Amino acid sequence: MNHLVIFDLDGTLLNTLKDLAQTTNVILTRHGYPTHTEEEVMKMIGNGNRMLVKRACPEGTSDEIIDQLTEEYITYYLHHCCDITEPYPHIHEMLHELKKHGFRLAVLSNKVHSATAEIIEHYFPGIFDVAYGHREGHPHKPDPESLFEIIEELGSDTGHSLYIGDSKVDATTSINAGLKYCLVSWGFVPDLYKDPQYPVVHSTKELVQWILTQKQD
């Protein structure tokens, strides 16, 4: 049975906030809507592109307009998703360390799948066995469907798989799937990491140690 670690993307492996905020504000400006600070956008992230756009738009914006802006958002972001984004410190070293210990590695994000694939290829070529973003016809996290799909595809099971994220959505996804999980304190939800009900690590070194302690024969 393969040992598997599945990672969230935004706020966990990569600091994508500047590109997400830039894209959001470009689209809002096109339509004459008020823009948002990076801190404000950070609080809107986690439930997929459409929800980010909906939260960014003025209250009462119609579903039709939100759908239109979401398409514009995705198109713009695909061309600018790697402008300012960068991995958090020591992420590459951590991933290579896990591979040396025999773990298979995957990504599951609520970011649209095309952008997820583009970003993974740009920043982590050859590292991950599978990387899924949100795909048409599949539910967003916290629905566990895509976690189960990754686990099956990589020849593991819920007892030999872990999920690493930075948000309540990630925690809930893991719980819904019956996976052990932890959150990283360098992510996008700083208040959450003070809540004692959530397991949290504060460095990539601590994360590797936590993952190794969970490894089962």
Task: Kindly describe this structure.
The chain has 217 residues and is of the alpha/beta class. The chain is 44% helix and 16% strand. It has 9 helices and 8 strands. The protein has helices spanning 17-30, 38-42, 49-56, 63-80, 91-100, 113-123, 145-153, 168-177, 204-214; strands at residues 4-7, 14-15, 86-87, 104-112, 130-134, 161-165, 180-184, 200-201. Strands 5-4-1-6-7-8 form a 6-stranded parallel β-sheet, sandwiched between helices. A two-stranded antiparallel sheet has the order 2-3. Strand 4, helix 6 and strand 5 form a beta-alpha-beta unit. Helix 3 (49-56) packs across helix 4 and helix 5 packs parallel to helix 9. The longest helix is centred in the first third of the chain and has 18 residues, at 63-80. The N and C termini lie close together (9 Å). The relative contact order is 0.18.
Can you describe this structure in just a few lines?
The protein is of the alpha/beta class and 217 residues long. It has helices at 17-30, 38-42, 49-56, 63-80, 91-100, 113-123, 145-153, 168-177, 204-214, and strands at 4-7, 14-15, 86-87, 104-112, 130-134, 161-165, 180-184, 200-201. Strands 5-4-1-6-7-8 form a six-stranded parallel beta sheet, with helices on both faces. It has a two-stranded antiparallel ribbon with strand order 2-3.
